[in-house]
Design brief:
single chain, 243 residues, alpha/beta, Rossmann fold, three-stranded antiparallel beta sheet, 10 helices, binds adenosine-5'-diphosphate, binds the ligand Cc1cn([C@H]2C[C@H](O)[C@@H](COP(=O)(O)O)O2)c(=O)[nH]c1=O
């Protein structure tokens, strides 16, 4: 372990000190806001990020789905949808790594808006695989140990969660329209299960720790109305506040 005075440089990451909770923290980015856009599959997260990417002084990070579809020639996302019991751990281990990589990468602007988080990968998707009986207990235990080690030892600050709250039916329609090959077999029931986990986490707050205040935006509207909502909420989002 590094002592607080030691510095370890690992490319994009300079870990130099510990927080008051004893976690490794990055230096120099204390004043930068991190906003995570959360929501069901095809709820409109990427579209929302595209809209805000036109604002100056915001860095936008979309989910690294292309990596999940192609790691050294393999497609863990596709494999997971074909056989979740066999490949769920493979996909979720890789997603956890790539999300951690995004959280720890240097922020190039005063504010970062990113799609989902290491938290939703675990609290929504791993949880869903496990609860639906598609992830073996041992796989869930190993992923949970990894997640707990990461979140207990590394500071992963999030200032605001913007929850795009949409009905599973809307997401199902949009998902069919988007037509990602791997997702063609997703039934409405899958989106309903993901929706319920999101609601328990971010609205009822009865399942897992919520790492930041939550701003809820209803996302069933057409694109024009969504833009109006984004404008109505612009100030809150850009100041990292839900009030
Ligand atoms: N408000 C909206 N009304 C209609 N279609 C939308 C809306 N927002 C996004 N879409 C479309 O729905 C699909 C999923 O949107 P996307 O932004 O990729 O969702 P996510 O990133 O949450 O998975 C895309 O085809 C997108 O063009
Ligand atoms: C974070 C996360 C995502 N997935 C799957 C769900 C979707 O098929 C894609 C992400 O697409 P979206 O349109 O951005 O929602 O990846 C998963 O299976 N596990 C996860 O942890």
């Amino acid at each position: 372990m590094l002592s607080p005075s030691e510095t370890k440089k690992s490319g994009y990451l300079t870990m130099q000190s510990y927080s008051s909770q004893g976690k490794l923290v990055r230096n120099g980015e204390k004043n930068k806001l991190v906003i995570c856009i959360e929501g069901n599959i095809a709820s409109g997260k990427t579209t929302c990020l595209e809209y805000f990417s036109k604002t100056s002084n915001i860095e936008v990070l979309t989910e690294p789905v292309s990596k999940w579809r192609n790691v050294r020639g393999h497609n863990p996302l596709g494999l997971m949808y074909q056989d979740p019991t066999r490949w769920g751990i493979t996909l979720q281990t890789y997603i956890q790594l790539t999300m951690l990589d995004q959280h720890l990468s240097t922020i190039s602007a005063p504010m970062r808006m990113m799609e989902r988080s290491i938290y939703s990968a675990k609290y929504i998707f791993v949880e869903n695989l496990y609860r639906s009986g598609k992830m073996p207990e041992v796989d869930f235990a190993v992923l949970s140990e990894w997640f707990e080690w990461i979140t207990q030892n590394i500071a992963i600050p999030v200032d605001l969660i913007v929850y795009l709250q949409s009905s599973p039916q809307t997401c199902h329609e949009r998902l069919k329209e988007r037509c990602r090959e791997e997702e063609k077999i997703i039934p409405l029931e899958y989106l309903e299960a993901i929706h319920q986990l999101y609601e328990d986490w971010l609205i009822k707050k009865t399942s897992f720790n919520v790492p930041a205040p939550v701003l809820v935006i209803s996302a069933d509207d057409d694109l024009q109305k969504m833009i109006l909502q984004y404008e109505e909420n612009r100030e809150k989002i850009l100041s990292g506040s839900n009030v």
